[in-house]
Amino acid sequence: ISTAKADLKDTQNKISAANERIDNWRSQEQDSTLDLTKKKKFKTNSDFMKDYVFWINDYFIPTLEKIEEHRMHTINEEFNDLFQKFFSLLIEDDGKEARIDEGFTPLITQDGYEQDIQFLSGGEKTSVALAYRLALNSIVQKVSTGMKSNLLILDEPTDGFSSEQLGKVREVLDELECPQIIIVSHEKELDSFADQIFTVTKSRGNSKITAGTPSQK
Questions:
Q1: Mean pLDDT throughout 56-74?
Q2: Secondary structure of residue 197 in the 3-state scheme
């Protein structure tokens, strides 16, 4: 009887230990089930994001690049037309032509041969710069919806111009159709183009500003 009781107790201890292991396994099973559910969810999200990445890389980005390329090509053509128009107004030379390349760099040709801008005369360089600035201003005003302005400021736009080129400036300004233009210049010939003239003179380090109209000068 004593041996049987000892065996019974030992068996009960084994059963208790086995039940404890079963409870642990069940707990591990629940944890594994939850972990598996999370991993399945992560995999679903991962597959979803992979589809997004594939769509963005293979469709969306190339489409945007095509749109941007087409848009920039259109802007380049408009810019080139404006640049050529302003340049032709300032330079009366049938053999000299100007255009804008794909990188928006001005190119000058003389009788069909490309000419380095550094070798142009002072007035021609100024004409290139002014035509470029005016073309750029027109394009920016057109494509930038948040930059609507009726004011254009030109600082020394005619440096190195001949008297004939100065006379062409009025035609250029008329082409702009800008309601208000401010020109900073030392050229007296431009006074006749202005509705209002502000003259700045210096005396002993102090600046004095006087206002007037062309008829009062």
A1: 91
A2: strand
